[in-house]
Design a protein that fits this description.
By secondary structure, the chain is an alpha+beta fold. It is built from 21 helices and 15 strands.
Length: 605
Amino acid sequence: MDGTEFQHLPVNLSLGSGQLPHGFDPGNQTFSGFTSIGEMDSGLATGNGLGPAVVSRSGPQFSAGTEQFDSRSGTTAQYTNSQLRIARMVPQRRQSQTTNNISPEQMDLDVILPAHLQSESDVFTGSSSSHGMTADKQESNRFGGGMKLVPSPPDLDAWRERLFNVNETITLTEEQFQTYFPHVDNVYSHRSTQRYKRKPFVSHYWDCRLKGRPPGTPKSNDPNKKKRKRIARQRDLCDVKIKITEYFPATEGSNADASSAGNANGPFASNGPSQPPATQPFGVLAPNPAFPAGHPGARGQRYYTIQRVNANGGGHRHTLEESDRVKKNSVQRMLLKEARDRKKARSQEQKTYHTKATGDALVTVKEHSKECDLKLFSACFCPFAQRVWIALEAKGIPYQYIEVDPYKKPDVLLEVNPRGLVPALRHGDWGCYESTVLLEYLEDLDQGTPLLPRDDPKLRAHCRVWADHVNRSIIPSFYRFLQEQDPQKQIAYAEELSAAITKLVNAADAKGPFFLGPNLSFVDVQIAPWVIRLRRVLKPYRGWPEPEAIGKRWAAWVQAIEENEHVKATTSTDELYLDSYARYAENRPNTSQLADAINAGRDLP
């Protein structure tokens, strides 16, 4: 702000005594105007604090006390000293005022106008009481910060078409502008803002976004700087430009531009002929130009006008749908952000996997917590780890159970399995992983009850074939059915899983109840963890039917597995499985390597 901002104040203007500040004698003094903002500051700051002061600058004197004259309303207002607030002053301004009688304390202070006068200053200069912000930033914050972002206001489609085409000058109330313009701000890209020192409005210029633009700053040759792919938009696809004029409250109609805006075509347009713009000389009280009936300016409200200003006068060379494809508007972006936030909040509240066994499994964990040469690294929710756990219990081999979190991959697990997956076994100074391989290893130890027939190589091969069927057909079908979100595909995967189970049942011993007959064997251990998850996971999440739906032989097999002491000793409560498999049922990202493989159609890891 400099002295040029006061050049509009008249010089040698004789004022009536009814309009003068307190203590001003019209008989022998006239007001010649301030020559600079520094002169105004010094005039208000000198004297007894903030009391009456006199500006002496080779001309007539002007007394400024606690009464302030409002040139717009023609009234004199009373202000207390506390209303003349003090703020920091620009040091360079004070350095040029060495001739003024200013105390050291006042050297770093500047007088701020009372709130009533300060608001008028903001209107004309675009200034703000926010320190440390540029005028452009202040204008941007005020212009875009008050948008309402209403998702579905009345007549939205009609308003979007109207604001897209802008066939004529449109006048909007502040409420209309804040409600409807955010629905088309993806069509336009803000280019510049024009402020006026002596006019109560601001003009914002926007180009159609499809005009295109160069990519910006050139790429850096600095090898240490992160590179990013930058592609210039195709240019000159549209040449529409619009001007949005923002008229401030309580001052509209005080100039020609405001009065002409009141007669523009729009919802508040006058039915009669346009009124010629009237001028209002300084110091002469005259009524403002009349606004049409219902115009927001007539009620002293902020309003906006929108008009097309491109040189050729033509409309867009594309459709509104094309603009929506290129960029989403502010309301759409807000709704997407809210959806992401809701999803994130739900994920934080969602049930997650457990890291500690429960029920009978917890009892078994405590029984096998002592140091032992054979160590099983397991996770209570993992069916692959439960296979090996069941085998250790069935064979009666001494072991130490170590619960680990495979999602965090602790070092003790990585030392045995570099992939960080469970189950894993450490036997002395040797380690191995993969559940099927570990089951074979436990058989080769030749300790405890055998799970494969010892004296019948053909039956052993038969067991291995159908154990492979479990791994290649039943388990992938189980996870495809659980992870699928499309109800129609879920039906197909349920039929696929049922067919794979039926095929296994047909290969089993006819009497049962286990695969080879009355006793738990190798194939039973392979499928047992998924059998107990049919009722605890697939039934609540996907409506898996009772075992009798597949057949009596399968129902007997399921019952035998559920009641087996070794299976029960390694099974936690139903809640643990229901919570841990919610991630799979919702097919959340980064659930597991297995889930990623199922989604990608790859083999199980």
